[in-house]
Amino acid sequence: MAPPVKPRTVAWAIVALWLSYGAAFAAAAINFRYPLTLIPANQTANGLSILLVTLIVGELCLAALTYFVASGQAWARLIYTVLLALRTAVAILNLSHWRHLDDPVTLMGAVSLVCAYVAMYWLFTDPGRSWFKR
Predict the structure, then answer these.
(1) What's the pTM?
(2) Residue 91: which of 77, 61, 112 has the closest Cα?
């Protein structure tokens, strides 16, 4: 029996997730300079190493999660939804920064959130919802 064909909305949702991932990565890369000011001068190398490892591991986890969503794993879709809820909570707590959309980090963060919400909409409405229930 042939596997069910992936609906077009699911394919577009995966594109939106990759765009969201890319925008979030770009924002993190642009904003990378800020945490360095929080690390004491005598611990800069150690702090930078920890920061880089954390960033790389987090990005790899998101890439793997996106891959599993694309392959139809319902658990990955659920984890992505929980992560989006947490990102939304952080965005609401930092709402005062959102008025500065001329800042590249804020703009990339906004693009990332919008892409993620569009993707979740496509994944949780039919035909996407039905495809995950197969």
Answers:
(1) 0.81
(2) 112
The residue assigned the tokens 């995950």 is 132
The Cα 36–Cα 38 span in angstroms is: 5
- Chain centroid to CA 12: how far? 15
CA distance 28 to 22: 10
Residue 55 near residue 40, CB atoms below 8 Å:
no
| Cα–Cα distance measured from residue 112 to residue 77, given in angstroms and rounded to the nearest whole number | 17
- 5-47 confidence digits (pLDDT tens): 889 999 999 999 999 999 988 888 777 766 555 555 565 556 6
pLDDT of residue 2: 47
